[in-house]
Amino acid sequence: MAIVPIDAYSYTGIFVVTVLFAFLDGYSIGANDVANSFATSVGSRSLTYTQAVCIALFTEFGGAILLGASNTGTIKDNIVKSSYFAPRQDLLMTAFMCALIASSLWIMGCIRIGMHPSTTHSIVCALVGVGVAAYGWDAVNWGWNGRGVAYVVSGWVLAPALAAILAGIIYGLTRWIVFSNPEHSLYRGIYAIPVYFTITGFIVSFFVVMKNGRGDWGIAVGGNNPGGAVTLTGDLTKAFVIIGSMTAVIFLFCMLFAVPFFTRRLIKEENLKWYHIFYIWFVPTQPRDERLAVTLNEAMTPHIKLEGVQAVEGAIVADTKEAVEVTEEVAEAPKGHPAWEKFKSVALKGFYHDISKDQYDSAKHLHENVHLYDNKTEYLFSFLQVMTASFASFSHGSNDVANSIGPFAGVYQIWSTGQLASSGKAPVPTWMLAFGGIAINFGLAFYGYNIMRNLGNNLTYHSSSRGFAMELGAALTVITAAFLALPVSTSQCIVGATLGVGLIGGNAKAINWKMFGWTAPWRLFRRDAGTAS
Hints:
Helix content is about 60%, strand content about 5%. It is mainly α.
């Protein structure tokens, strides 16, 4: 059916409302998707909340601007048949606007009460809702082929299950290779780090390079259907030269800088700073760090008693290796204007409150049912965790930002030109990618703490080695799914990976099933976003 254009720059009210809710949608993505990318790093104390926000500021924004897709499917994966809207471009604008309103409000509502929604599937279901409302059930592709609704629904089960299996295998191998002999775990860990770094570097480099929106290469699936032939397209020589170069640089850095740094810092116990790793060969011998054990304990396992009674946030802990209930911080007298103090307590809570110590009543038993390992060895994996989280954030910015602002791009093209391209795709200018990147970073900074708190030590115990396995397992799931043409969500993957590592690292009692039951229902009620739209 031929497209019937409308007058350019008409329906400005719809465009303005779309801009506002596109920002809110990006804000919710930052508070949800990016927060879950860093939740394990913050929960295991490899990063502070402030450090996570600073890293994301560059990785998310940089990924969106440098590698963000130059065009995007405005109707996600053709789940709604765009041909139905050809004669009514004004109705298509309204549909995109309503989908953004419903999706953003749904996600923010879920985050507010501690649920863990999938932003991708929320916008998909919202588009399904507007498609049904506009033209009935026939306007939606409900089938499996062509990436219809049945195809999307399958990912609600497949993604977390696959992530749980992969993350569990990674952590199980780590326990066997590194931690099986406690007396030699540190030495094993130091020389395993280059292997882990190289493998991780290859995986994340492959994902970033092959899935970004700017390169002339990619992954194609025959017929755009699950089960179709998977092929790598484009200039593969150039792509793999980039991947190989990035991997080689990581391996050389580990062998030439990381191994000597960790040997001096953890075995010889020299008082080195983290930045010495970049010029370790030029750092003279430092005095022995007499407080190394205490420093590592305070940084990585503050809930564990070390040589006597340990105070945690004003509470006295008398039981060895036992999780404690963290008491509320003692309220300090306001130091500024009441409005500023209120703003700090709400919008800046993550910066002023150590969310890794938050522990609900239902999580008291978790740390009693996990295997704890040497803090020196765990410290090694904190560097791996930072690397994995940073690359995951960068790839999120490069691959998902443009998709998340697809409806916004569609409304802008219709508003400015009078019609949407017959291909169903809309160009995404750089300013729009920057707009999405800013909204995402605002969401992480001001509201990401809510998801981080729930996915952190309240779901299962987090350590650096466990967090690394969770993040790598989730990343592998996304890559594997890309090859198999299976629909996945990063939100689903990280929850599944956390569950898998929790079971391998302890037992069924090491999982806070009450919290899992609270984060899981969004899979069942995600249709509410479609109903609202």
